[in-house]
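agent> Task received from the user: take the single chain below, predict its 3D structure, and emit structure tokens. No templates, no multimer pairing.
agent> Plan: (1) validate residues, (2) run structure prediction, (3) serialize to tokens, (4) report one or two observations.
agent> Step 1 OK, no nonstandard residues flagged.
tool_call: predict_structure(input=
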Amino acid sequence: MNINFSFLALFLSVFFFMNSCQDVKRPLSQGPLIGGFELLAPEQTGIDFNNTMTESKAFNHYFYSQMYVGSGVAIGDINNDGLADVYFGGNQVSDRLYLNKGSFKFDDITKKSKAAVNSGWTWGVTMADINADGYLDIYVSRNGNSLNLEDRRNQLYINNQDLTFTESALKYGLADVGFSTQAVFFDMDNDGDLDMYQVNQPADKKVLLINRVEEKDYKFFRDRIYRNDNGIFRDVSDSVGISRDIAYGLSVNATDFNNDGWMDLYVANDYSEPDFMYYNNGDGTFKNVINEQLQHITQLSMGSDTGDVNNDGLIDLITTDMTPEDHYRSKTNMGSMSTQAFNNMVEAGAHHQYMANALQVNTGKGSFSDVANMAGISNTDWSWASLLVDLDNDGLKDIIVSNGIKKDVDNNDYLGILQNLDVKNITAEELFRISKEAPSQAISNYAFRNKGGLEFEKVAKDWGFNTPSFSSGMAYGDLDNDGDIDVITNNMDAPAFIYENKATGNFLKIKLEGSEKNMFGYGAKAVIHHNGKLQVAENSATRGFISSVETGLFFGLGNDAVVDKVEVFWQDGKTNVFTDIDANTTLVARYKNSSSVVQKIEQPKTLVTELTASSIGLDFVHKENEYNDFKDEILLPHKLSINGPFSVSEDINNDGLDDLFVGGAANQSGVLYLQTSEGGFIKSESQPWGLDKSSEDLGSLFFDADGDKDMDLYVTSGGNEFRSGNPLLKDRLYLNNGFGVFEKSNKAIPSIYESTQRVTSSDIDNDGDLDLFIGNRLISGQYPFPASSYLLINQNGIFKMASESIAPDLVNIGMVTDAVFTDIDQDNDEDLIVVGEWMNITVLLNDSGKFTNNTIDYGLEKTRGMWWAITASDIDNDGDDDYVIGNLGKNNKFKASVEHPFKVYANDFDNNGTNDVVLAKFYKDDYVPLRGRECTSQQMPYVAEKFKDYHSFASSKLLDILPEDKLGDAVVYEITNFESIILINDNGKLTVKPLPLDVQISPIKSSIVNDFNGDGFKDMLIVGNHYGVEVETTRYDAGYGALLLGDGENNFKFLSPKESGFYTPHDSRSISVINQKNGNYLVVVTNNNATCDVFKVRSN
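)
tool_result: status=success, residues=1100
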């Protein structure tokens, strides 16, 4: 017998290839990427499922408040024919199972499959291979208003491999009888099999009111975790570290947040119990790290998902809440948050919770930064599911959100009707009538296209995703195997939505063939590299809200035709590596072909090295004094009493070493630290400012005040807690005796009692000594009325206030935060640039010692912003100063544009002797108040009298609400841009350039410019945040410091904290540089209500 070995080799290679990559008939995309959906009719698909809800006098939301939650949907291939099938959960209607016949044709096989044999109130549905036989099973989480355990026993439908199922929950140990929401199957202990986390709730609050619940039943209300022991699931909840508190959990995700190879968990909880973020300890036990790793969380958390939204290789997190985007719905359906209630919640350890969606971006340091406001996805109404998935095949994960509540039961006017009911005598018939009268409005689901750089755009209308509905569960999968992701939503009182995706971009699918006990490869992760780009995805079915998605991994590739490298990582550390994979194919990754690879963990060499401040003697801990800024000015956007601490460095004892002064809060002394020859610090014996600790230290300056060749200290006194005229607001000057011993000079500066923040020096009158600019921060109780700043002229060590004629525009200049003396016009004298809150960037040119306002000449007359800081430096090495100016940033709810500025109005609008602040935004065709009727009427009681209900308030324009006779002398400002910027000085012409989006995530409070990497180009170090906001505004805590590398052309690249070594996730205020004798230097960052951060920078 002759064997043609060459033919055999060819056959085997083709056979191997076909088993590795399944071709999909999709032409390679080379042109513009097109995204969008077609909503298919039930008649076309055969899917006619409708989660119909029928109310009666014995069953409505007064008897079961969670009746409008809806139910879930699961997508998966139940018969391994290569087509994804669909399971719908029902509430009053039965669950349904549809078999995919191809080309978007489905058959209802519910009855013959016996996959919904037991009726019940279904919430969560999950497809997973629970018995490891290679076929998907179906797990159903039951809820409802019944106290009968059998009514809410969860169901496990084991796949018989012949399109029939057998209910087997008791057999497998998964017959949980809690009020269940959703389950996730994952490998918690890396033993190769699937364990399960079950989210549960207490009985519905109306059920608890109507029925007597025994204390012994409360054990069923807690979440549970079941460990798989040889195919049987055992409840190990009490021994693995998960919370035993009762919470209203609504969703759960299993993911590896910290990239340590162990699956972590995130549980989204409704109401006041904070979410759970469980990091795996590496042994199958968990630790809740929610307070340590997240700066804040959503309050009414519902849906959640995980994925890499910015393609940096790190897993991010989205959670959804219920705040409407629409002004009218927001003002009619949302209640005010009590400041006291919020503070009580925080003090009780329940975290900082806000009623807004969160998009938590992984910093790579184990912590997360919420950028939802900047991304434009923070408010999506009553949001259930949230999914991170690439829907237009461009290689970036988009966001879709299902939302809508059948009855707006939180409508404020409707609640007002309920409050007037005679609860003792009301009948069931009357309650039913009132229930039917609850407002109801179907609204569109949301779709956001990922533009890259943490920016998204709303595309629901463009993508055909905007049909109004009451949607809840939502899942995705490639239902027609054409290489894009289709979407299904489970709707209440309407047919389910089946969306066919029409995307044109290229793709790569990865089918996972896992180990014997995890055949679908749950928990596996893939990293792909293509055309210089990176993507990462994890294989987890439970996502979004009470739903599960098709298993496997999907990557959009845009127009890229080849994937250079694919790495598949299994949970036990084994890896598959593939190279040069064609686009538009399905790659099969088999665990049996994986290999163990010893990965060398190399710690990157960072540009700066973090030190522990106390280890070098800097033991200062700022302790902010408590003051309620909102007591008299309820509508303030943020606190003004927490603007410190600031620091300043100089050699004060002439030993050649820089020393450091850090200012204190009110009732806290500032501290002077002396540098030692070893590079550490000791407290100076001279601390005379301790006698002035009742004042609040803000900006300070070391300078030679009296011409004796040593550094004296000027300290501004500020804060919002002291009214103008209070003696504690007098600034202070401490004179140095030449040896670092200071004494306060009471007569050297005038007795001015205003709240100041900034001091900087220059020889204004050219007489050889240093004069001062003093920036007045605010007029307490008069936000945002402009304060007057001033110059102090040095006359032989005695400082006199300059006449107004020297700098007339300093009168009522505004709420100054910072200023620099700089020769902007290159005429060899120092001009003055002043920035502040609600101020233009103001340029005052020095003409022989007199300052004139040339802001318009420099094109800065429309730069009003919430400016916090300015740094002057020759950034582009062209011989003149450029400027880094920190604004509020883009990650806030105050949206502004040239077409529609953000506004503030201030006056005593109700004639009661207090200043009233009204923030305003553009809505439809006019301006409306940012804040709601309740808090607005607390500030101005006439509002509640004029607008008897929330509807009339929400329907009114701003100028209908404010008294016309008070507008004429009101302060009115408008801001068109909140971006932090560079002002590039090109021969006296200033060009505005925004800083990278990476640092627009928070206010910038301070910056320094230097060449940190030794390439000859200037770089930037930036810090910020501002925690003290009013409680209906998500606090500004997303910043964690940044090192930006410059290229000499005024372009700057953000370095991650792992690359730079610079990481300051605190409420930072200032940066000081301390030179050391070895040529290196320290960067000291001061933080409000915290210790300092210290970083060592090596000389280049």
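agent> Step 4: summary for the user.
Residues 1-23 have pLDDT under 50 and may be disordered.
agent> Done.
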